[in-house]
Amino acid sequence: MSTDSTGLRRMFPGAGWETPAMAGAAEDIDALIDFVMLLRNTRRSEGVTQVQIAERLKTTQSSISEFERIGGDPRIQSLQRYARAMGYRVRLELEKVPSELPGQVQSPKAK
Q1: Which one in 43, 61, 72, 89 has a CA-CA gap of 20 to 30 Å to 16?
Q2: Which residue has the higher pLDDT, 17 or 8?
Q3: SS (H, E, C) the chain
Q4: Would you say residue 45 has pLDDT above 90?
């Protein structure tokens, strides 16, 4: 089991985090939350306010506040727009996970 960097496993202790499927889902959720926290912390360290980001994105400060709060499921496009508003860009990468995850499609090369 990976570390519980966002407290997800503590918030939902009986969710079966030990199963491969739930462990994978938890890693995905943790990674997304960590990324939104990175955006927020970068904004703060750059000295940019939520109001300034909102103006650049033609939205409201309350929308930016909601975006930065843990619990949402932002679209990739939203992450990219937020990062661009600070002069950054989002780069995605693909990482191979262990093949024992249920429901994982096996590539023809693996057979």
Answers
A1: 72
A2: 17
A3: CCCCCCCHHHHCCCCCCCCHHHHHHHHHHHHHHHHHHHHHHHHHHCCCCHHHHHHHHCCCHHHHHHHHCCCCCCCHHHHHHHHHHCCCCCCCCCCCCCCCCCCCCCCHHHC
A4: yes
